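Q: Could you write out the predicted structure for this multi-component system? I'm mainly interested in how the pieces pack against one another.
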Amino acid sequence: MMEPFNVRTAMRKEEHTGTTSGLCEGYIQTNMVTLPKEYAFDFLLFCMRNPKPCPLVEVMEAGQTVPQAADADIRTDLPRYRIYRDGKFAEEVLNISDVWQDDFVTFLIGCSFTFEKALLDGGIPLFHQEQKKVVPMFDTTIPLESAGIFKGNMVVSMRAVPNHLVDQALAISDRFEQSHGSPVHIGSPEEIGIKDLQSPDYGQAVDFDPAEATPVFWACGVTPQNAALQAKPSMMITHAPGHMLITDQLDPNYKNG
Amino acid sequence: MMEPFNVRTAMRKEEHTGTTSGLCEGYIQTNMVTLPKEYAFDFLLFCMRNPKPCPLVEVMEAGQTVPQAADADIRTDLPRYRIYRDGKFAEEVLNISDVWQDDFVTFLIGCSFTFEKALLDGGIPLFHQEQKKVVPMFDTTIPLESAGIFKGNMVVSMRAVPNHLVDQALAISDRFEQSHGSPVHIGSPEEIGIKDLQSPDYGQAVDFDPAEATPVFWACGVTPQNAALQAKPSMMITHAPGHMLITDQLDPNYKNG
């Protein structure tokens, strides 16, 4: 297995530009949200009020580019970024060096990729990894607590789990509180406003047999991107869905090291 | 025992202007810090990084005057307030209605008064209550994590505890994580930079026999006032030390209801 530093260096050189799912297993991966400082209080409060989709791993100071969690430059060491202007998706880029501002505040938010190795270790297959897809993510009707300009509904990631392993998946993910923890919904996508599992709002559709496997939904760190569409900050930068910051921190919750 | 609403009404009418120690026992009391929104992100981060002196009970939106924790107006329903301008203490007032601004963000921070009833219920005498004094508080040399403009050392409250009851006081206060929890120091004031227990920086000196009782120090919600002296925000309003917001929330940690 490659070390996080080496993987991030490949990203910095723009040699690796794909999803981070399955990379550096056992290391904590995080979502990234970067905002001008004028929005930072509202967003920090939004995260505190919605810890399930937005579990804070680290809040960086204005202008800070190297987090405590990783020997990384957050402007270059993720594989892909998305830039939103006035609440609209503007472009997807491989680094954000050109658009960086000294008043940018960056939030690192826990990611369900962190517990995927634990799921695998628990004997739970990950169909999106087997099918080499970005995990499918969906907008839902699950409302969030608003904070200042930020409000909206939760985004979830979906993993289909063989029926007899659903309880096991619950128990394992429940240990990872800083990475969204236990699922927010199991079973019926329509109950949380999802019409078609084959048409995800982010990521890619994954094949599974609905007679054999149950869709399980976890709160997702793409939620802030959804909230930004409504809050319309002048500028907001995030990781591209599925393309995370890989930190240098081993998750202490893994039973198999 | 009077209900919090009635006690706060007496404060609103400026009939009760003294310390809240021992009032409405069992109800959560909080420190208050109010700042213009431009400082709110730095301060929220400061609290998150220093949960022992600054355990957040509630963060209010900009301009919000009625908290969730109490059917109260935070501009009038504390007995006494302190106004700091440019990091200097300006005045102590009985309400802040005249100076209120729509961009003010208010933070409610846990207070050790909350667990005082539990200490009493555990057979631990509270000398400051017996002597009708405001609990003595001290600046220390215990450093804090900085956040933006906020930095400084911890302020502690001191209660002298009969020697054979110190362990009991530890165990009881440890249950109250949102109200500073267990002590930060026991025994030797000089080890945390306190020269004279009879000269507190805030509150009033309390008499006790050092052969019979041990000074026990808890992290104190006056800490932000100390940090403000260094950060020099243009405006900062706090409760006066010892003069708290009494909320409508019963602390679930009391064993005796």
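A: Regarding packing and overall arrangement: Helices of chain B lie at 4-12, 40-49, 116-121, 127-130, 166-174, 223-231.
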